[in-house]
Write the structure tokens for this entry.
Amino acid sequence: MADRAGYDMVELHAAHGYLISSFISPLSNQRTDDYGGSLANRMRYPLEVSRAMRAAWPAERPMSVRISATDWVGEAGVTPQEAVDIARMFREAGADIIDVSAGQTSTEARPVYGRMFQTPLSDRIRNEAGLATMAVGNITDFDQVNSILMAGRADLVCLARPHLADPYWTLHAAVALGDEATEWPKPYLRGRDQARRLRDRAQEALRA
Ligand SMILES: Cc1cc2nc3c(=O)[nH]c(=O)nc-3n(C[C@H](O)[C@H](O)[C@H](O)COP(=O)(O)O)c2cc1C
């Protein structure tokens, strides 16, 4: 359906306690058959779904998998170390990129929030497993985005809430960074020109 609708990319949601996630986490997966217990068993159904998605999705278009890279409950749940193996397994089952989120899998979770709080998890998966990753979570300004990319901590950065507060976050970032290539919708061009003038004036004032 996503293919027919013309989407450029599709993501398997394997995080946040949804169906696939509930198989991966040992906290929610209490099964005693071939689909529970060891990591290989807990990953059996998620990998079946991943392979089926890959088979249905055009080979030339990217497929991502979103994971909870920690359950935030210590050794009893998914740990950042185990998440490296989980990411590798999804890569082998067709994922081009891993969208690294965390938690929302257990009421016992003790998450540690803060600026860019999930980025270390992306960093670890990207650099230990050699996989492409997306970083997400409390990343709010473009300096943070650029430092994550330049430091090789992720291949893509996703922002959610900043876009709720400012749907034109990306256009504003492009102006601030002096990026002339970003396309603006035609009816907005005078807004773009004004934003650029204001930027230039602010920079001149700083120099004066
Ligand atoms: C209103 C709202 C709804 C969300 N719904 C989902 C969702 O359905 N599935 C999901 O994976 N993440 C969901 N998220 C989480 C975001 O995808 C993102 O991971 C999270 O907000 C952290 O990024 P941020 O700090 O840039 O907002 C939601 C976030 C918000 C604020």
User: Anything to note?
Assistant: Residues 166-208 form one domain. Strands lie at 10-14, 63-68, 97-101, 133-136, 156-158.
